[in-house]
Amino acid sequence: MSATLQDIISHAKEYGFVFPSSEIYDGLQAVYDYGQNGVELKNNLKQVWWKAMTQLHDNIVGVDAAIFMHPLTWKASGHVDGFNDPMIDNKDSKKRYRADQLLEGKAEEYAAAGQQDKADALLQKMGELLSAEKLDEVRDLIIAEGITCPISKTSNWTEVRQFNLMFSTQVGSVAEDSSLIYLRPETAQGIFVNFLNVQKSGRMKVPFGIAQIGKAFRNEIVARQFTFRMREFEQMEMQFFVRPGSEMEWYEKWKETRMRFHKAIGLPAEKLKYHDHEKLAHYANAAVDIEFEFPFGFREIEGIHSRTDFDLRNHQELSKKKLQYFDPDLGEDGKAIGNYIPYVIETSVGADRMFLAAFCNAYTVETGEKERTYLKLHPALSPIKAAVLPLVKKDGLAEKAQEIAASLRLHFRTVYDEGGAIGKRYTRQDLIGTPFCIAVDYETMENNTVTIRHRDSMEQERVPIDQLKEKIGYAVDFQRILEAI
């Protein structure tokens, strides 16, 4: 049974995963809070990404750069002059849209109708016009394709114009002395400006990478599709510095590595695909997205880009500080010494998009004699790993169950639940994705065994209490994901 986006949104709110931000004041568009279960799932995804980068690779280390950066950072990166989306308004409905998304939607219609050549031609034409900044012709293309506003059903469009997406603010205690700065629109620049700090202090040798997880902010005009596109979001990025000329080899390696990661966390191969960029960003000489099939279609969850030396070179020119790598191994004889600005391969995944992909994929409704809804999350990612449930609250069963829960909490997240019939308690845990429920009954008091009930199959097995830590601990360990990458 296919879930709709509304099914996902409703389940996420009802079971403590995602809430509208400041909902008691009617919320704030495109801003969300993670609830008690959502924050656990999101943190688990961030932790396994971090381990996959820094623990599995000797030559990748992490940083945590500040959100506020010197404003010239964004001049060097191109964000001040070029971080724009092409926006168009419908004069009748007064609604604003991204011009590229309107055209991409039309291309999807062609593809769904079996006209893939027409879809590809449209995307290619759009990419050419946007790259050449021919905004008048973008509007003409929208009209020529018969694209109308979903609300007014008319094609009474304004001109297409560029809208800068950065949030600005003031720094300084006195208004007259304050200076304009920006909330960072991406985390990558915090890595680039620290390139030499990390390289020298860590004695890093090219090729090496720097990873970071952090908040970024974009003033999205068309923010939609739940946590897929938000104004405040979290990125997990790794910039991998390589010798010029070797970038395409590393680009291909990281494409494959990152696809294996998404499969390892439980996303099925048939719901993942590569999508090469029609329009390359100003810094890239190659770019591909890894897309996941959400209820609203295939969309990007991660981008892999070959950024050349664009960022380091621009920062070097604007800051007047050399950002070059001293390579003692350069040269055929192994003795020649050279300085160069490294090229960069970027892997950039949205934590919120990965959360949404994992949640959508896990949401399962089984029909049959009795309909059952549960979250089929990888056990290592589940917010709660095990729930301990006494059959009844009397005759010492509750105390025994609390004792078991306390011992397991030292190793993985465990909850104790004694409220209501045990069948209802199983259902509660299914709905939040708990992989293992441990039932404590009268037989437990006789021989120190319990029943483990498995979420996905609903099968039950009898296990000695002293084997719980090892049995469940093995299944919920991040190692199960890392060994599959």
TrEMBL record:
Annotated PROSITE patterns: AA_TRNA_LIGASE_II
Compartments it resides in: Cytoplasm
Record bears the keyword rRNA-binding: no
Keywords, comma-separated and alphabetical: Aminoacyl-tRNA synthetase, ATP-binding, Cytoplasm, Ligase, Nucleotide-binding, Protein biosynthesis
Pfam families: HGTP_anticodon, tRNA-synt_2b
Domain Aminoacyl-transfer RNA synthetases class-II family profile: 7-383
MF annotations from Gene Ontology: ATP binding; bis(5'-nucleosyl)-tetraphosphatase (asymmetrical) activity; glycine-tRNA ligase activity
CDD domains reported in the protein's UniProt record: GlyRS-like_core (cd00774), GlyRS_anticodon (cd00858)
InterPro entries, per database record: aa-tRNA-synt_IIb, aa-tRNA-synth_II, aa-tRNA-synth_II/BPL/LPL, Anticodon-bd, Anticodon-bd_dom_sf, Gly-tRNA_synthase/POLG2, Gly_tRNA_ligase_bac, GlyRS-like_core
Family to which this protein belongs: Belongs to the class-II aminoacyl-tRNA synthetase family.
General function of this protein: Catalyzes the attachment of glycine to tRNA(Gly).
Subunit (UniProt): Homodimer.
Name of this protein: Glycine--tRNA ligase
Organism: Leadbetterella byssophila (strain DSM 17132 / JCM 16389 / KACC 11308 / NBRC 106382 / 4M15)
